[in-house]
Amino acid sequence: MSATRMPPPQPAQRVGAAPKKEDLPTTDPQAGPDFRSQLAAWVESHRASLLDGLRRLFKQPIGSFFTCLVMAVALSLPMGLSLLLDNIQRLGVSWQSAAQISLYMQIDASDRQGEELRAQIAKMPDVAEAQWISREQALAEFQQQSGLGEALKELPSNPLPGVVVVTPKEVDKDALEALRGRLAELPKVQQAQLDLLWVERLSAMLKLGDRFVFGLALLLISALLLVIGNTIRLHIENRRIEIEVIKLVGGTDSYVRRPFLYMGTLYGLGAGLLAWGLLAYGLNWLNDAVVRLSGLYGSDFGLAGVPLPDALSLVCGAVLLGYIGAWLAVARHLRELAPR
Fold first, then answer.
1. pLDDT tens digits for 19-38?
2. Closest by Cα among 116, 90, 140 to 307
3. Distances from the Cα of 136 to the Cαs of 100, 120, 141, 256, in angstroms?
4. Residues forming a β-bridge with 189
5. 159 φ, ψ to 5°?
6. How many helices (H) and strands (E) in the chain?
7. Residue 32: its pLDDT value, please?
């Protein structure tokens, strides 16, 4: 009986071993990693850098808070002054009412003629509003405001003329002069009066305030960049050995720079939110005194809060400043971080 030939024993496959070469998918050796792998690696790197920045900020909560607070104070100063200037423009009288043109009618002008003239002026393209004040209304207002009511009653007749008060659409010196000249030539108009000196003073004060705020903003932005740069520089010095090792094993400059850029962005975000809160609280605290003061003058004026677009611009600007400050600091010290 002949022995049955048995097949040679097959080698056992180790658990967890890599598949045989013939089982691996064939790929082009010249082709690099696909786009999906690159995108996943890029997202993972940014996520790790963001988490690392958050961990290091929360590791020193007091120092991080005071850094954000210093930045918030520097950010809130120019923004607060700008909001106060906007509120000053609304105080009392507006730009248009500050530049009203008063047309004093002739004494013999009737109320009907005054109303017709008012309607004619209101249709002009560069006029926002026209109001007719009759002689009786003018006398009543003068008696009430001057306190000479009993003395004026002794006059044989009303000496005050009717007035058409014209509010222009735009406040411009040359345009106002031209409008006043045209209105002075209308029938039954005896005199057209415009207080240009008050308009010029108000415009000069507001322009001075705008320039002051702009200059202060430039100075404080420079100071913020220095604060961010110095803070990031300290973090770089604390991680110098780690960074040298990363560069020694082939880490790129962008990989080294990324965590610090996220730290600067987080500092800016915290400072922007704190500045928003400081402005909202400060204006609300100041508004109580302003309301009491305006109430003594019979006005309901109050400070407006921080508009949402301005608040979002403040936060975005703070984030951008934090990013720029961190980038400048890392770019300056990156060439010094080569492995020794």
1. 454 444 444 545 556 777 77
2. 90
3. 21, 22, 9, 81
4. 105
5. -85, -5
6. 11, 4
7. 55
